[in-house]
Design a protein that fits this description.
By secondary structure, this protein is mainly α. It has nine helices and no strands.
Length: 198
């Protein structure tokens, strides 16, 4: 088996460190130590901590994209049911961390967007890519008469992602699933519910 490169070790260690501590608290020394690398090795592979964090974000987004693809897969479940399935999958992941961790994309959006233009632009791009499969699923639900056509599918996808991030923020503050369940109950009784279509 090929040995994992030092660059990959650093990215793996950075993923864990940023995920657990956040961007600001995750020092380069901490990341290097967690990777079992020598001091100075970080700059051999990454031009800056911002560039490094951008690659960590892409790794996280690849993970999330896999969850999205699986949850929204066309398997006979109606579109609104597939949207609900995604939120339920994420809820189970959040439960495993006692409602304290949230989403790395949301966490770094709050922490870095004001202070780092490169990371802000990276996050803008990630949200645009993230929105696409949700917009496609919502458009399918609109075509089937299951989801309201009062709003554009892409706007509804943005609303879903933004509101869900807000619910996760409250979840972390309260250390409780109640904000998540409240959000799901309301959105699937209104925007993504049959009641809206009457």
């Amino acid at each position: 088996m090929a040995r994992q490169s030092l660059r990959e070790n650093l990215l793996d260690a950075g993923f864990r460190t940023i995920w657990n501590s956040g961007y600001t608290a995750a020092g380069v020394r901490d990341i290097v130590a967690a990777a079992g690398a020598r001091p100075g090795s970080f700059t051999n592979h990454f031009a800056s901590k911002e560039e490094f964090a951008g690659e960590v974000l892409e790794r996280y987004f690849a993970y999330v994209s896999g969850l999205v693809e699986k949850a929204l897969a066309r398997d006979g479940t109606p579109p609104a049911g597939r949207l609900r399935r995604y939120l339920d999958v994420i809820t189970s992941k959040l439960a495993a961390h006692d409602w304290a961790r949230g989403c790395m994309i949301g966490n770094l959006s709050l922490e870095t967007a004001v202070h780092s233009e490169p990371l802000r632009l990276r996050l803008v791009d990630i949200f645009e890519r993230w929105r696409k499969p949700f917009a496609e699923c919502i458009a399918e639900g609109q075509a089937a008469g299951e989801i309201t056509k009062a709003f554009d599918a892409a706007d509804l996808a943005d609303f879903l992602l933004s509101s869900w991030q807000g619910a996760m923020l409250r979840m972390k503050v309260e250390r409780s699933p109640e904000p998540l369940e409240r959000f799901k109950n309301i959105i699937f009784s209104t925007v993504f519910g049959k009641e809206t279509m009457r």
